[in-house]
Write a structure and sequence with these properties.
Blueprint lengths: L3 H8 L14 H12 L10 E6 L2 H7 L8 H4 L2 E7 L9 H8 L5 H19 L5 H22 L3 E5 L4 H7 L8 E9 L21
Helix pairs in contact: 1-7, 2-7, 5-6
The chain binds flavin mononucleotide.
C-alpha cells in the first residue's frame, strides 16, 4: 500500500483553475487549520497568524493585489499567512512568555532565552530580517496546510505572486504587529492537473 502522505503529496499540484461552485466543508477546513496550528516553528515561537477568507467581497478586493490571479476569487477559501516579526526580538516580553510556558526551572528558562538571543544575533539577524526568518516558519505551516488539504482531496495553490503592501492595505493589516508572508488558495480543481515536472531524483539527492 502506498504511504498515505506520499499519496497526498502526489495528489497535490499548484492548482491554477478552481471550481468556483465547490466549497470546502467546515470539518475539512478545521482539519486544515489544525495542521497549521500544530506546525513546528523554530524555538516554538509560533510568530504567525492565519487569516481565513471565504467572503467573495474580500476575495474580490484581494485579487488585483495578487497579480489578478483567478485562484483568489475562484477558490473556496484563501488563507493569508501573516508573520509577527516583532515577536522574534530577543528583548520582547513574548520571548520570556514563550520560553516560560515550557515549565522549566527559572535558571533553565533564562539560559534558553540567552541561547536564543545569541543565536538570533550571531546567526539569524546578520543574514536576514526578522520578517524573513518568521516567514520561513510560516512556510512550514504552508506545507502542512497543503498536504493536509491534499489528504482530504482538496486542491491548493501557494501564492507568492502578490504585492505585499497592497495586500496588507486591502486586508487592513495592523502593520505594527503583522506582515503578510504567503497566501494559499484552497478548493476543488476544475480540471485534471497537468503532468508533474521535476528534475530527476538522482540530480537532487546526494548520500554521504
Ligand atoms: C512559495 C510558493 C509561491 C508560489 N506562488 C505562485 C503563484 O503566485 N501563482 C501560481 O500560479 N503558482 C505559484 N506557485 C506554484 C509553483 O509554480 C509550483 O508549485 C511549481 O511550479 C511546481 O508545480 P506543482 O506544485 O504543481 O508540482 C508557488 C509555489 C510556491 C511554493
Amino acid at each position: 500500500m502506498m504511504n498515505p502522505v506520499i499519496k497526498a503529496l502526489n495528489f497535490r499540484h499548484a492548482c491554477k483553475l478552481f471550481d468556483p461552485d465547490k466549497k470546502i466543508s467546515k470539518k475539512i477546513l478545521d482539519d486544515i487549520l489544525t495542521a497549521a496550528h500544530i506546525s513546528p516553528s523554530s524555538f516554538g515561537l509560533e510568530a504567525w497568524k492565519f487569516l481565513v477568507i471565504s467572503s467573495d467581497e474580500v476575495k474580490k478586493t484581494l485579487r488585483p493585489a495578487c497579480w489578478n490571479q483567478p485562484q483568489i476569487t475562484d477558490a473556496s477559501h484563501v488563507i493569508v499567512i501573516l508573520s509577527k516579526p516583532k515577536l522574534a526580538d530577543p528583548s520582547h516580553e513574548y520571548i520570556k512568555l514563550n520560553f516560560g510556558r515550557r515549565g522549566l526551572p527559572e535558571d533553565a528558562t533564562k539560559a534558553y532565552i540567552a541561547k536564543y538571543k545569541h543565536h538570533m544575533e550571531t546567526e539569524v539577524f546578520p543574514r536576514m530580517s526578522a520578517y524573513a526568518w518568521c516567514s520561513k516558519q510560516c512556510y512550514i505551516s504552508l506545507a502542512n496546510i497543503m498536504t493536509t488539504a491534499a489528504s482530504e482531496g482538496i486542491d491548493t495553490c501557494p501564492i507568492e505572486g502578490f504585492e505585499k503592501e497592497w495586500v496588507e492595505k486591502v486586508l487592513n493589516i495592523d502593520k505594527s504587529l503583522y506582515e503578510v508572508s504567503v497566501v494559499v488558495a484552497l478548493g476543488y480543481r476544475a480540471k485534471e492537473q497537468p503532468p508533474r515536472i521535476r528534475h530527476p531524483i538522482e540530480s537532487i539527492i546526494e548520500y554521504l
